[in-house]
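Protein modeling request. Please complete all fields; requests missing the sequence field cannot be processed.
Requester role: graduate student
Desired output: 3D structure, token encoding
Chains: 1
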Amino acid sequence: MRSLRQGGSESFVQYTNSMLTKWQVSKDAKDTWGPFFKAWAMYAKDWLAARPIGEANKCFPLLNDFNYLDHLERFLEMYESGLFAAATETATKSSLSGLTVVVAPDRSISRVVADFIAHELGGAARIDDLNRITVDKLADMCAPGLGAVCSAVVADGIGQLRRLTKDHADSISLVFFQCSEEGIRSLFLPEKEIKKTMGMLNGWRKTICSYKVELSRSSLIDVEPMETDEGCRLMPSENFIEVLSRLRTAAVDAADESAGALLFFPGIPGCGKSSLTCTEVQGELQSSLKQRNHPCELIVKVGDQTRGKFWQVVKHERAKRKASLYIVDKNVPASTWETVADVCGSTNAVGIPVLPDAVSLATTRVKGLRRPDGAIVEEKVHVYPFSLRYLALCMARVLSRTPSSHIGKLDRGTKRACMVVIKFFCLYRRIASHELLDSISAKFNTVGATVSPITVSVLKSSSKSLPGDLESLLMEALRAQFGYDLARGSSDTTKTNDSYLDALEDQLRQSIDTHLAAIYDMAADEQISRGMFVKGFLDRIAQLDSVEPKASILTNCFPPTPSFYKIASFDVDVDEVHKVVLKVAKDARLSVLMEAIVGSRSAANVWTGRSSVNADLIRNTHVTMLHCEETTQEEMEAAFGALCGCRGTIQVVGLLWSPTVAALAVALPEKTECGYDVPACRNEFAHITIWCATGQETKAANDLPHLAANGSATRVDFARCFPLVGTIALWSDRKTSKGIEEK
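Delivered output (743 residues):
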């Protein structure tokens, strides 16, 4: 369902094709299931967006994650009746990989020839602007069947082509059509233009690529400069047919179709990754690979030693060495898993996350947070996949580094080094230990790539509990970091001038120094950890032969999709919300707010619901019931999943605003219209944000009661309540640039 919502029907079909290949489904089965999935995508796309017109559709609910089985039963009847038969006829699959550029002196000629080549190669993708092809897009074209044919004119110049060939020359073919002097002169161009074209051709011909060929006009009969209509009859010569055959294999021959591996560390600073990728371990791995006659190259990429955008560099290097065994010596938090999956998907690599074993991979649950202004919020609950003992050991290792000795500039000499480690730890917030691998796998499944994890020991199984004072300090630090992460513009605690954090840093260092011996006594033996790492890595490499070739891995099928729900909410129609605002707009107590938003215009011309042209008014009006920062995905779905689509009546009881944000205060129903209990709202302030000033964030609405109490905001309670009907929903994507980040 997420793939359909995010990428549409075409992306869903590509995704299902890649998964069928990954599961080693037979060709006959693919031919059977392909049209079925295509038909379902067409059906679901309509029902996800809006209810299709028709008498039979009036009483049927919109499609969502929880009622799709009802829709599936209805769809099966339609599918079996042959309703989708004509629309699901499958086309011939392209046999091209890589990029073929057709160069001609005339644009209409190059397009006709490019169209013909693309058609003859099974309907390959067509492009008419070389500048549209980025290095990343070219890397994706290297997969069999995903190649493209681009038309180009000599006068376009070779700047972009040279940039592409820098890293992917072996994936590019050049077809020069009618580019001889005789062919150019036959176009009756001015002499000056003929000489210019001949001169520019020298640059084109010097371009290094996988395959180059010159074809005369006579090799493709009936090609005329402006004759691009469908009725144009093109007859290839034997020479042209040979070129087509060569193009089918040019990029495939150059591409390395053997599966490779990309090993990465979902950890935090001090977790021990560098000791597992050191020169000694590399030597042991290379020796073992040699003994096993494994031909793959071993590459270790250190994040702190890499110039440029790290993952872009990795993707380009792996594209050239797809069969390589690539080890990334860098912390890879949750926000990066999607990128890693894309790299693996586009370069035919099995993703190998290195995870700590169950002793370290144990959920930490923290209650409460501290705001930057010192206010304590007791109700917020946040979870992390790693234990506090794991955090303490990593922090101790960072502090053991001599000042100014670490290439990544994180050692004892770093200001607030402990809080930097805390910040990394918090990058895994919202994920419980049992959800960690599933969360990683979800990103890889999106692009049809494979995950095969290995585990290593970081802590001894017999480790004692942390000293009480250190455990309390770590919990306090997590509460403080959570408060800063929620505060606008204050997420980077390493640069914030805050005496509280300075004092907390000093206390953490003192406590760790005091208990250093006990902390190190909890650590697993380094040689045992290395042994587990080497064995696990070699075992995964031995399995590579069973991995499907690159054709089974389709990447960039659709935009990045989240693997978890962002919020549970009561969604309210913005038209109805604005009707309530208009009912209270004449209240003298609201005059300051209304003047700020409406100005000299009539309120009735501004608060017009969906049709409003005021960009600062919130369109996706809702009450946030539960945010992913406060719970696990499991708990969120258990509480609200079965209630999605249920309606309930919300009562608007007041309005609060500051110079930057305004929200309606609401009272929530105890039960839905169908009689189900409504879970309690975890937000301290149940509200519907209605306005947010340009450049501000809607989550600031959470602070309105606190600001109103100290005079920085205004609160108006209404004499009577105004009812609004809301629908319970789970948000799994960003519905708008305003609203989804609200907590």
